[in-house]
Amino acid sequence: MIDLHTHTTASDGRLAPDALARAAWEAGVRTLAVTDHDTTAALASARQAMAAWGIRLIEGIEITAVESERDVHVLGYFVTPTAPGLSRFLAKARAGRIERVRAIAERLEQLGRAIDLQRLLKDALVQPGRSIGRPAVADALVRAGHAASRQHAFDEWLLPGRPAFVPRSGPSVADVIATIREAGGIASLAHPGVTKRDDAIAAWAEAGLDALEAYHSDHSPEDTDRYLARARELGLLVTGGSDFHGEDEARGRPVERRRRMGAVTLPPADFERLEAAAVARRG
Ligand code: AMP
Ligand code: FE
Ligand code: FE
Ligand code: ZN
């Protein structure tokens, strides 16, 4: 089975690469992409961990763009993690994430829901390339006893319209696509059924978008069919995966089982087309 969307402790996943490799193996996944938010820091150790289990690692990334004040996630596959343009781009994104986490923590303090900001900042400093964000704040709210789970923390405090939401700035989708392509990668629009910018897909395809993530844990069967049809119309490739982050823990009890490892997979024929496109891009 092929799962092209997973996260590790380098961003907001709960499993380090070796535990992720075991989870992949147990779920029957034999080709796995690690796609952390705005960091490639886990890829080197993921490569080793996957090799130990006989799993093929696809080097990936999930980059946050911002359009009309809304987040748009773009996946990159077969990227060269050390490409200088990509490294600079991601370092800037992570610095912006730290500033945003500081601003959210300040807001929470004013709201009487202080969190241990120093611990979050230390995490970001100690682990090179560590990418922090709202999920880390949500976990800090749980640790401080202000929320029962990561999900509750988002619902109460961190989503747009909630009291500790802080807007972000970020690169355009076109800039993200160009950066992924310059690093030798294939760019795919992550979970378009969640992002809900169907109106913009044709323009992003013009800007060099290669693929749509038609298969995703948060997609209904109708969503998947719609994006498969859209990809065919526009001549785009298709990607898919579970978006596994590990399980949420509400005071020690797992509550989030929706995005199970290997619960959503990519058909092998689509993967072969993706790989052929990557080989062609590298010349
Ligand atoms: P950030 O990039 O800091 O804005 O955080 C966004 C990340 O938080 C997403 O990539 C998801 O992994 C996670 N996330 C977004 N919305 C929710 C939600 N409602 N509940 C739990 N996690 C969420
Ligand atoms: Fe995430
Ligand atoms: Fe995403
Ligand atoms: Zn993701």
Topology:
Layout: E1 2-3, H1 17-27, E2 31-34, H2 43-53, E3 56-67, E4 70-77, H3 84-110, H4 117-126, H5 134-143, H6 150-158, H7 173-182, E5 186-189, H8 192-195, H9 201-206, E6 211-216, H10 221-234, E7 237-241, E8 249-250, E9 253-254, H11 268-282
Parallel strand pairs: 1-2, 2-3, 5-6, 6-7
Antiparallel strand pairs: 3-4, 4-5, 8-9
Helix pairs in contact: 1-2, 5-6
Bound molecules: adenosine monophosphate, fe (iii) ion (2 copies) and zinc ion.
Residues 62, 73, 190-191 line the site of one fe (iii) ion.
Task: Note down, in words, how this protein is organized.
This protein is of the alpha/beta class and 283 residues long. It contains eleven helices and nine strands. The chain has helices at 17-27, 43-53, 84-110, 117-126, 134-143, 150-158, 173-182, 192-195, 201-206, 221-234, 268-282; strands spanning 2-3, 31-34, 56-67, 70-77, 186-189, 211-216, 237-241, 249-250, 253-254. The strands form two sheets. Strands 1-2-3-4-5-6-7 form a seven-stranded mixed beta sheet. Strands 8-9 form a two-stranded antiparallel sheet. Helix 5 (134-143) packs across helix 6. The protein is globular and about 55 Å long. The mean pLDDT is 95. Residues 5, 7, 35, 62, 243 line the site of zinc ion (ZN).
